[in-house]
Write a structure and sequence with these properties.
- The complex is a heterodimer of chains A (76) and B (210).
- Chain A has 76 residues and is mainly alpha-helical.
- Chain A has two helices and one strand.
- Chain A is flat and about 55 Å long.
- With 210 residues, chain B is an alpha/beta fold.
- Chain B has a single domain, classed as Rossmann fold (3-Layer(aba) Sandwich), CATH 3.40.50.300.
- Chain B is globular and about 45 Å long.
- Classes of the chains: A mainly alpha (76), B alpha/beta (210).
- Chains A and B meet through helix 1 and strand 1 of A and helix 2, strand 3, helix 3, helix 4 and helix 5 of B.
- Strand 1 of chain A pairs antiparallel with strand 3 of chain B.
Chain lengths: 76, 210
Amino acid sequence: MSSNVKDKLTASVRRAKAAQPPAATAPAAKPASRRRAPAKPAPAASAPTPPAAPQRSANFVEDSHRELFPKRVWPD
Amino acid sequence: MAAQVIAVLNQKGGAGKTTLAMNLAAGLARRGETVVIDLDPQRSACQWAAQGTVPFPATVKQLTGAWDARSLHQGFRAYRHVVLDCPPAVDSPASQQALRACDLALIPVLPSPVDLWASLRLPQEVAEAGRVNPRLRAYLVLNQLEPKSALSAAMHEALAEFGLPVLRACLRRRAAYRTAALEGVSVYELGRRGLEAVAEIEALIEEVFA
């Protein structure tokens, strides 16, 4: 039984693999932006940052404390 | 010393990325300053940390705006380990950037055919990222393993088809992982309830960082 499951699972993965687009054609299907060089960090002024959060830099938002979370009130 | 960057990613939601990222970070935090960067728009890691009545063992932050490997290292130079909790899409800009910026990529996979099929593009993505990030090492991590299940037993053979190394250390399906999320802590803070899960995370850390 276990061997049957093993064979079926491995065969299913092989079938799914075979149905994948070939590796050579796959990159062409990806968005052009992925090919570009990594973007430079956004300037501080354009980074959406919560007003009270202490930050190491403009892009890193301190978020590990409950009190820094946006207030969310869930209806009882 | 530059921070070690570990990306936890997969194409599929529910594979246990955040569970692995948070507990791994807690384990790494016992060895040096560790930060979890929540790159997932669902903000699961941030929500997890916010559940607790005591601070999570690792710092948890959200990253907004554009970033790259350089700005990541610069921004988190105070940390020894940076764990990136990626969104459930390997071709998302955040996951792509994470693969290009990390030293180590951990890919949790569930013992389920659907999860395996959904993850088949990963080797290709890892190979592509490896061309611009030669220090990248990637491993598959079996998650929510059920030792008595035939499907779980069949996983190692099926994962061999991926062409990526599979860690010997794996995470079993345990209530402790879910309890930890609910309580906003890691399995390390669960005392006896978390001992077996802690042993799994420790085994993973030992295997990867040995």
